[in-house]
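Here is the promised in-class demo. Please do not try to memorize the tokens; focus on the logic of going from shape to residues.
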């Protein structure tokens, strides 16, 4: 009897497992760059090259005299212990074993109302990639210690003027969580405001 029940349980569990995650994506095809930052970093939309997919990518320029500036590219709230959050993002760096470089990192944020809150390091990638053009950076976090939110960062290394590019971001999180990534939608508000200013 046990051998019959097991496959049935497995079959019932599979569709549930498939529905238990959500994904959010960003190809930087709109006007939004990053959700926030720590340290001096200049984020802009790249429209010429390098672009991994579509017609735009995200350009990050290190503007810090020292330290490692962080660009916030994802924010997940409503998390519980044991939940997993995964990220994949394409990065462009063409200087092997030398700066500029970047990697995916994360920190906990237990205040769902303020992306600027820091509740401790969540660690991240140990490697900086091959530095031979585009490569896919990836990392997965498991929520611990009662944390409820995670901010996903790109850390750039490590001198003023160092520049890297990002494209095709995907964040995967449990269905019950709230995932925020920069929007691919062109801001009509911003266009209207520009038109208003021009008319004066
Ligand atoms: Ca793109």
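The designed amino acids, position by position:
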């Amino acid at each position: 009897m046990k051998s019959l029940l097991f496959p049935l349980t497995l079959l019932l569990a599979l569709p549930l497992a498939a529905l238990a995650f959500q994904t959010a994506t960003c190809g930087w095809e709109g006007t939004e760059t990053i959700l926030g930052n720590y340290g001096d970093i200049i984020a802009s939309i790249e429209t010429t090259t390098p672009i991994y997919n579509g017609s735009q990518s995200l350009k990050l320029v290190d503007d810090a005299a020292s330290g490692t500036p962080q660009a916030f590219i994802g924010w997940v709230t409503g998390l519980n212990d044991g939940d997993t959050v995964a990220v994949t993002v394409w990065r462009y760096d063409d200087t092997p074993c030398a700066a500029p470089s970047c990697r995916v990192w994360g920190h906990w944020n237990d205040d769902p109302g303020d992306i600027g809150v820091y509740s401790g390091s969540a660690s991240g990638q140990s490697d900086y990639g091959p530095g031979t053009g585009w490569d896919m950076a990836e990392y997965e976090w498991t929520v611990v210690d009662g944390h409820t939110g995670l901010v996903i960062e790109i850390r750039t290394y490590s001198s003023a003027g160092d520049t890297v590019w990002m494209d095709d971001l995907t964040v995967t999180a449990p269905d019950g969580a709230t995932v925020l990534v920069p929007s691919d939608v062109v801001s009509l508000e911003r266009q209207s405001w520009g038109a208003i200013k021009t008319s004066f």
